[in-house]
Amino acid sequence: MACRKKGPKVAEAFLQRLPDPPLEVVLPTADDFIPAARLKATRRNSYADGFAAALAMQHQAAVVTADPELRGMGDVLTVEWIGAQGEPAIS
Q1: Is the pLDDT of residue 25 over 90?
Q2: What is the spatial distance between Cα 51 and Cα 11, in angstroms, rounded to a whole number?
Q3: Per-residue b/e over 35-64, b at no fewer than 16 CB within 10 Å?
Q4: What is the mean pLDDT of the chain?
């Protein structure tokens, strides 16, 4: 969003000031496709959101998001909402 509003140079300068976040990159395996597909089949979410949700559930982790599709999955996983207050979840 910063890139769109302020331009790529400002966005890059912001990224350079961020500390290294405690993140782990996890690539999907063949075993990850079925849980993601099940979420896609039973929820109103994209396949990519299904992967994010399935991965979070597998690792007992929260999803930090402003995506209303993922916000609506709070009944099956922990969602840390960073979107606008009062923004409705998709049901």
Answers
A1: no
A2: 27
A3: bbeebbeebebeeebbbbbbbbbeeeeebe
A4: 84
